[in-house]
Amino acid sequence: MKFLRSSFFPAALLLAAASLSFHTTAAQSPSAPETHVRVNWQAFVSGTDGAQRLASLKKAVAKMRSLDTSAPDSADFRRSWKYWANIHGYLGTGSPFGTLAYQSQRLKTYGLEQFLPFLVGTSSKPGITDQTPPDALAKTVWATCQHSPQGTQLNFFGWHRMYLYYFERVLRWAAEDPTLTLPYWDYTNPAQTALPVAFQDDASPLYDWRRSEALNEGLAALNPDVTDIDGPLTTDTNFLQYEGDIERGVHGNVHCSVGQTCPVALMGLVGVAANDPIFYEHHANIDRMWSCWQHSHPTEQPGDWQNQQFTFVDETGAKVTRTVKDFIDTKALGYVYDNDSKCAREPAIVVAQAIRQAVPNVLFSVKPLSLNQTSTSVDVSIPAEKVKSLVGAKPQRTKLVLRDVSSVSAPGALVNVYIEKKGAPATRKHVATINCARHAARGTRCTHVRIRRDSPTAVSRTARHGGPDDNVRSDFRTGGFNRKAGRTKRAENSAPGRDSARVEVDHWRH
Predict the structure, then answer these.
(1) What residue ranges define each of the domains in the chain, with the CATH number in brackets?
(2) CA end-to-end distance (rounded Å), the chain
(3) H or E, element range at 153
(4) What is the phi/psi pair of residue 476, to 5°?
(5) Would you tell me how many other CB atoms lie within 10 Å of the CB of residue 357?
(6) What would the pLDDT profile of 128-157 be if each residue is shown by its tens digit?
(7) DSSP secondary structure string, 276-323?
(8) How many CA atoms lie within 13 A of 273 on its CB side?
(9) CA 345 to chain centre
(10) Which tens digit of pLDDT belongs to each residue from 226-242?
(11) Distance (Å, rounded) from C-alpha 269 to C-alpha 283?
């Protein structure tokens, strides 16, 4: 099996299997909804009822697709696949994601012309077209997905939970199966990073030709390094920090990896990503990540973000407006996840709160450097005398800090960051992946992807001092994908020399 990555560091631990219950009918109050269990994809298609569950899902997607040509003002159109994809985002003159012409020119500007067919289509395969909301309701609900632009954090978790809730209700209606429950693709488990087989069948309504060919053909899997959420789950200190880190991290990494790259349709372009059926299994896992945080932080109180309202349509095609606070408790909505308590690959390392909040001493700083087309390395030398002057001879911990990692345009690849002991390549570790998935709306640029010391994408690896000097090498690599061969390769940046970063090594006293 090939991974969509530049280097191979298979994780040692797998998530433990959980005992499952797909559908519970335990005694509940008359007003409480029946509780469904969202399970991982492998569990969804396994067991005596697995084939039936998969058949129901396929039936639902096929039914929704069949409604795409319904009368624009009808309830059926509001239950169609096209309508629901457009709720997340669409292209057209009234869309924040711009028009087809705008996105086409954007690819050309970034030097990604080879990916135009995935946007505009070919002689035998359909492309994306500009659309116009047919009525006032569509104008209200289309392209309302909450993805945070630089410097702002929107209601990412809240909006997408509401979106999936109503989408799942439409699925049940379309399948004529009230027990159908949306499964999640658990790529956080290194054993489940391959695209589920049912999505690889080109005769299935779950298939889309615009994904990376190697994923669709089962020749490659997602890189487990870019789907690891241990950092944010075990070290973030509050909900908003965690929400932002998941959105900027694993969420964007998967979008860019499943699609050809970012910002290429479908999955790599936020404005049209929901046209791909795997989008919903991806976001079900993102929603589960919120539940994981809720499980481990049961006393944390929600902030003002819970009072924001959003509008959708339900399975009858009727308009519904609700507040996020109504969607915080999934059990009250009628569903839970099979695993929201053992979500990390490794046990959390307990770090005293005082250490997290300590002001660091900067031991070494590298001036801003430009990243080249394939790989850029920088050596960091920390004089032992400087360390000892701060902490004495006792070994202490350090952290590599990446700040102001930025690009003036989409690089057309994920940027992977590694660290190793100089002269000892066997010590090399993956410590960060930078993606540009969020920067897809018209008028925004892929810029200033900031990695702070308390971010999951910052280094959480530790180094011991004791030698004359502590010499560390940090390596930035653009990880691309060879579509024809189904192998990984280093891809060129679309704007060589225009990507940059600043590297520092900070120290915290224990």
Answers:
(1) 42-337 (1.10.1280.10), 353-507 (2.60.120)
(2) 42
(3) none
(4) -105, 125
(5) 10
(6) 999 999 999 999 999 999 987 666 678 999
(7) STHHHHHHHHHHHHHHHHHHH-TTPPP-GGGG-EEEEE-TTS-EEEEE
(8) 33
(9) 17
(10) 999 999 999 899 999 99
(11) 15
